[in-house]
């Protein structure tokens, strides 16, 4: 039987480490360690490495091995194969943009917690039926943003969220002020020009600004 309370505890332990989860796309493997070290060393130790590039799994394995101060997870997990692959690579959690019954079934047999993506009350209700109480609210701004999450709180008080999608430094505080929001996800601290230039100092400064949003 799926242990709802245990799963919530595992996810809460991840969420509690920082107010912001960087959503990271790694195009060049050589960028993975310096980029993520700049994030982790400046207050953002929870890292969501998306499965959007050919080197993503290799990057997750590298970070899990070489960056012990971080909590390395995988994003854009779409199916059971993705879930198994990121677990084998050493990810400590997985995040999906949406979720299917097949993915819920696979996640129930996986010791690594899955944080499924939801956008509607109905999707949250289906997650609750499967035993989940912790979700990614995605795409946050396009799905009603702060107002939607306020609306969720009344009928779904047991659910907590990491909203992601369209959030930046100026929008994040309104989300973090909600009692059913544990943290937010975003990529604003990873501007493309800084990554291309290897400007890890700039990324570190942006990470410090995001970490300062802690409640």
Brief description of this entry?
The chain is of the alpha/beta class. The protein is built from 10 helices and 9 strands.
Number of domains as seen in the coordinates: 1
Give the termini separation. Answer: 35 Å
Q: Helical segment tally?
A: 10
At the first level of CATH, the class is Alpha Beta
Assembly type? single chain
Helix share bin: 40-55%
**How much of the polypeptide forms β-strand, as a percent range?**
15-25%
Average pLDDT works out at: 97
Can you tell me the overall shape?
globular
CATH topology heading: TIM Barrel
**Biggest sheet character:** 6 strands, parallel
Strand order of the largest sheet: 5-4-3-2-1-9
Structural descriptors:
about 220 residues; alpha/beta; TIM Barrel; six-stranded parallel β-sheet; three-stranded parallel β-sheet; 10 helices; about 45% helix
Could you explain the architecture of this structure?
The protein is α/β, with parallel strands linked by helices and 215 residues long. It has one domain (4-204): TIM Barrel, CATH 3.20.20.70. Helix content is 44%, strand content 15%. The chain contains ten helices and nine strands. The chain has helices spanning 4-15, 29-40, 56-66, 80-89, 101-108, 121-130, 145-153, 172-176, 192-197, 200-211, and strands at 20-24, 46-50, 71-75, 93-95, 114-115, 117-118, 134-137, 160-163, 184-186. The strands form two sheets. The protein has a six-stranded parallel β-sheet with strand order 5-4-3-2-1-9, sandwiched between helices. Helix 3 links the parallel strand 2 (46-50) and strand 3 (71-75). Helix 2 crosses helix 3 and helix 2 packs parallel to helix 10 (200-211). The longest helix has 12 residues, at 4-15. The protein is globular.
